[in-house]
Design a protein that fits this description.
eleven-stranded mixed sheet, ten-stranded mixed sheet, alpha+beta
Length: 935
Amino acid sequence: MPRRTPRNALDRLRTPRGFHGFLKGASVCALVAGLLSPLSPAMAADAGIPAAPAAPAAANDHCGGQCSDILPPGQNGNATLAQILLNQAFGTQPAHAEDQLGPYANLATGYTGLTNDKINTFFNDASFGVPDGQVASTVRPAGRDDVTIVRDKRTGVPHITGTTRYGTEFGAGYAAAQDRLWLMDLFRHVGRGQLTPFAGGAPANQGLEQQFWRSAPYTEADLEAQIESAAAKAGERGKLALADVDAYLAGINAYIDASDKGRYFPGEYVLTGHKNAITNAGTIEHFERADLVALASVIGSLFGSGGGGEVTNALSLLAAQEKYGVEEGTKVWESFRQRNDPEAVLTQQDGSFPYLTPPGNPRGRALPDPGSVEAEPLVHDRTGSAAASSATGASAGAADAALSSARRGMSNALVVSGEHTASGHPVAVFGPQTGYFAPQLLMLQEIQGPGISARGASFAGLSMYVELGRGQDYAWSATTSGQDIIDTYAVELCQDDHHYLYRGECTPMEKVERKNAWKPTVADGTKAGSYTMRVWRTEYGPVQYRATVDGKKVAYTSLRSSFMHEADSIIGFQMLNDPEYLNSPERFQSAVQHINYTFNWFYADSEHTAYYNSGDNPVRADGVDADFPVWAGPAYEWRDWDPAANTARYTPPSAHPQSLDQDYYVSWNNKQARDYTTAPWGNGSVHRGNLLDDRVQKLVAEGGVTRAALVKAMAEAGLADLRAEDVVPGLLKVIESAPVTDPAAKTAVDRLKAWTAAGSLRTETSAGSKKYAHADAVRTLDAWWPLLVKAEFEPGLGTGLYTAFTRNLPVDESPSAAHGPTGAHAGSAFQYGWWSYVDKDIRSVLGEPVKGPLAREYCGGGDLAACRDTLVATLKEAAARTPAQVYPGDENCSAGDQWCADSVIHRTLGGIKHGGISWHNRPTYQQVVEFTSHR
């Protein structure tokens, strides 16, 4: 059967659904459109006043040619109508639309022989400036004499150099619009919950706007107030940030006007009905401050807001207590929750950083009465195509994604202290794993101007500063951390379903609505439809569920510390770009303390490394267990909470995991530090962070680490099957505890042993073969894992509790799986799954030592022979499944095509498509850095 629609909302977004039918006359249309818009947006004459091509003087650069980066598919994310039609009809690519995709993809098979001098075969040179003879264009945007935008020949990356602060930021905005105008416009509408009227009513678009608006249901007044509030709290830096934003917006709007006049604006505006290709009628709306907050709310919600899931936690706890009784059920639940597992891989290796330690006697818990929980409906008054089953299915998926604690955790980092490197200087390989989209969510740039000196990546539309990258003598990056900054409150209802008790008074909820309607366009042929999205807001956040607690009617609300503070992080990013401020690892830690989203931040210069975990972690009331809903009331609120501003007392910087010059750091969204509780489930004995930790630990023990060696460690970890490397050996030990006489089982065991002995890698037989080495073993494990987990745990847990636990943590997240938080073809894999449960249970059955074991033994009821029978039976069943059964095919792949099922596909957010590449579980944007000197 076809794969399910991926659960991650961005993976579901489809703007150009109707292109194929429209392109029956593509070649004719392309010729006509080519006459109307003959130039690419970055090179069009009206893009600004051309200046004499000359390489700008490089800023103070201490990297010595040893800084590299990569961001597929390419820098150019804008395409005219002609370019879109030619791409759809013939596969032609606009300049710099995918020239970074090949080098990025080639690392998967080319890393084994990597040396330092070959790194830039797979990465870009990330030195400041553009070498002589490599200038492709030099433009003074809007004719300004205080800024130039130089683009290099190899990648088309903009190098923005300003003589004034205003001009520098104007150039940054202009360059952003040159490269990502359509994407920026798309996401300002996503953030407002108005995607369908803008881009079409496809079910995927409905699901996307619903997911994000449910989490951030802002009014226009809310959006406008947030950036002003963030600036007001930051003194002179706040004033500077507002001036930067205004200059940046002026640059964006100048490009909109120029591209409209010159008719080289993105072709998606024509295909979605906003512009007329013949008359040029129609408007591309200018950007305002509120648009940037809407964009930030999407990015923050997706990557930087850990927590949630308290209601599903409560339901699984109740199921455990029903199964085993309160005391034993609670023990079972805690053993699966693994809040502070002693075997979990850690980023911060020393010390203890207690956060959300479970109280011995919880206060204020508001667990729902059995069977009473109902999700709050978001969508009302459906008409037309909004009432179709595909649309309601998309709504259900969006609700699951918005309410789960299993959020998209992304990015990895490998940082080694100079004490263990060949050069004596620290080496870092790090970057954000933000998925694969066309155009990419991130964009590269270099910005040089008064108070700004950096090169790196920024989210499109928020690129007034480099958000992840390098400065003159330092580099930084981040991974999603996921600590809990979201709590669920039970507000008691009064009068009716839309009034609640707030500090003793019956108070009306605030109704916030979006009325959306759409009609068919060339890009999206979905029939006309409409609906209303309605959120009820309380002082304790938006309502997410309804239930009864001890017979009382309640609404469960979700309160996030970054709610109404989407713009606060701007000050931290400003500091990261300021060479006068950021001159030490301590200053780096100080800068990222100003970022209120939940991230792990890493730093390297020529002498030091550093780590800091950011986020506004609210201080909970004594006795409150933040894993569960609590009653709304002063006794259980965040300490010093001001509901009007949604501010509270936060844990001090000293309480956040942090250090300087640790031997090495690794992070792949794993547990940050000892005693530091994270919101997602699954931080146990086996985590994908182990794939990095094992390899880097070995390199450090050997000494003499180089950039190439660290890249190779990252690349190999990104090809490893976590289950095969860390869990299958234990499973085979059980199976081989007695002779394997069944021929089918023996064949499967031998294949798995050969694969694990070869490294447990999901990799091609040779570059471009599109066939896996050990293909049968890979297929067998993909089929076996869900079968063995169910057979191992469901008999002991019972169907009800087993199902409840699978809602807390998906069973599997293999590269080909279309279930789980990331969906299919998304690259990221092995973050969420039951690998730790299987590992601990199998070791217990084998009689091996286990720190932090499960409360009971499940495989075979704890009997080794019975466990073996279970594993052999499920292994035989899995081995008998055909490739077509294991990989059933989807819109991109035929049934049975294993390589294609795993492959990474850039999901189209515009009109340009790209081919799939071999699976590799690695950052989307990635840096390789080793500074040779310091200021």
